[in-house]
Amino acid sequence: MNYNFLKLLIEGLNNNKGWLKTWENVNPKKHYDIIVIGGGGHGLATAFYLASEYKEMNVAVLERGDIGLGNVGRNTTIIRSNYLLKENIPFYEFSLKLWEGLEKSLNYNAMVSQRGVLNIFHSDYQRDAYTRRGNSMILNGADAELLNVDEIKRMYPFFDYDNARFPVKGGLLQRRGGTVRHDAVAWGYAHAANKLGVDIIQNCEVINFRIKKNKVEGVDTSKGYISCKKVGCAVAGSSSILLSKLNMQLPIESHVLQAFVSESLKPVISGVVTFGAGHFYISQSNKGGLVFGGDIDGYNSYAQRGNLATLEDVCESGMALMPMLGNCRLLRTWGGTMDMSMDGSPIIDKIHIKNIFLNAGWCYGGFKATPASGWCFAHLISTGKPHKLISDFTLNRFYDGSIIDEKGQGAQPNLH
Ligand SMILES: Cc1cc2nc3c(=O)[nH]c(=O)nc-3n(C[C@H](O)[C@H](O)[C@H](O)COP(=O)(O)OP(=O)(O)OC[C@H]3O[C@@H](n4cnc5c(N)ncnc54)[C@H](O)[C@@H]3O)c2cc1C
What we know:
Blueprint: H1 5-13, E1 31-37, H2 41-52, E2 59-62, E3 78-79, H3 89-100, H4 102-106, E4 117-121, H5 124-139, E5 145-148, H6 149-155, E6 170-174, E7 178-179, H7 182-195, E8 199-201, E9 206-212, E10 215-221, E11 224-233, H8 239-244, E12 252-264, E13 272-275, E14 280-284, E15 289-300, H9 308-321, E16 330-341, E17 347-350, E18 356-360, H10 370-383, H11 397-400
Parallel strand pairs: 1-2, 1-11, 2-8, 4-13, 11-18
Antiparallel strand pairs: 3-7, 4-6, 5-6, 9-10, 10-11, 12-15, 12-16, 13-14, 14-15, 17-18
Helix pairs in contact: 2-7, 2-10, 3-10
The protein binds flavin-adenine dinucleotide.
């Protein structure tokens, strides 16, 4: 089914009786050429690009629950490409370009909104660091502008500019950054992949792998055995559990990250803003809720809920930047399970078993990477060779020490 103006008009006159399902729920076939485990953003994007770019026509996505209930539907919806290191910035810029054309390529309204991402700085040292980052972005084809405090005052007059501890000194703005409605990304990719013949199989948990002569032959699932030629694992916070079935210990810890949404307010925050003196980021949804978040909860967990101490810490950071936040009532909170890698950067690579591929380690930044991750993972699975944009996202870097330490904070997930 195509979504277009004529169809909307016809359905409006027809009492909306003619809409078809966004994707078909099917039972698994006995065999697929490629199985993608995990129906989150990355798994669904991989399946879509496998079919659309690499012409793989016998592909299934196996999702243990329902599409969109993992991190893809739990994040704070921010997209950006404001990275520093040469291993990261071209990849995230490619992703941002794919976001810019996403709705057309999926024929689905994901509410991509390039409303700008502003990183506030509070010291001369931070200004220099952001200037360096901005220069790296521009050299790699991304957009970046350094704003002084007066320019920020015109955009956000209600910040606490003269806070003695955290004076606002300026900010790095990426105008092309913004937000995307997260669950529509899952639905859109599922819709478009399904239209190209990909089977989307929900409530189908992969329990184990069948391996012969160090090569994958299929997977055991809650819906029975399915044979296949290749498997792509894109299960985010469950990566350690899934890969432990292959006796692998990944350089990944699972941590909870929470999101918070306030009651609906009139439009007040036009873009995305991050605080530079604590971990706090905020935007406003189209429905009016202030959507914000901060640090991971700081202990290993697979729970999809967080604790009150982190809530307090996030709200304190928020109020240090915009005291008016204290007058606002919190409506909802939830948590997601983050696959925190040891250097804060992702892994898209082969593993020691032939024809099994791994996509993991997204930490709390994997939403913005969804299109590029799907594209590059599809390339790896289909061709067996890494796409040039992910040639550094190897598993081996944790053995040979060539880590991608974007934040310069070392091998401690709770710090990056
Ligand atoms: C509160 C919060 C805020 C965030 N904010 C941002 C942000 O603003 N910007 C940003 O870029 N990123 C953000 N992120 C991170 C981002 O959401 C994740 O990095 C990204 O969504 C992970 O990839 P995914 O979408 O494929 O994961 P998921 O949606 O979690 O997909 C993995 C899927 O695998 C399934 N699965 C697991 N095990 C199995 C199995 N054995 N068999 C079958 N299926 C299985 C799960 O059910 C799940 O649906 C945030 C995350 C959270 C929780």
